[in-house]
Amino acid sequence: MELRLLRYFEAVARHQHVTRASAELAVAQPALSKAMRDLERAYGGVALFERIGRNIRLTEAGEFLLVRARSILAQVDAVHEEMQARLGVRGGRVTVGAPPTVGVRLLPAVLAAFHRLYPQIELRVREAGTQALTGMLAAGEIDIAVVTLPTIERGFRVTPLFEEELVIVAAEGHPLAQQRSIPFAALVDEPFLLYPPGYEMRDATLRACRRAGFTPRVVLDGGDMDMLLRLAEAGLGVTLIAPLALGSARLAVLSIADQELRRTMALSMRDDPATSPATLTLHAFLAERLVRRTT
Question: Does the domain spanning 167-260 belong to CATH 3.40.190.10?
Answer without folding.
Answer: yes
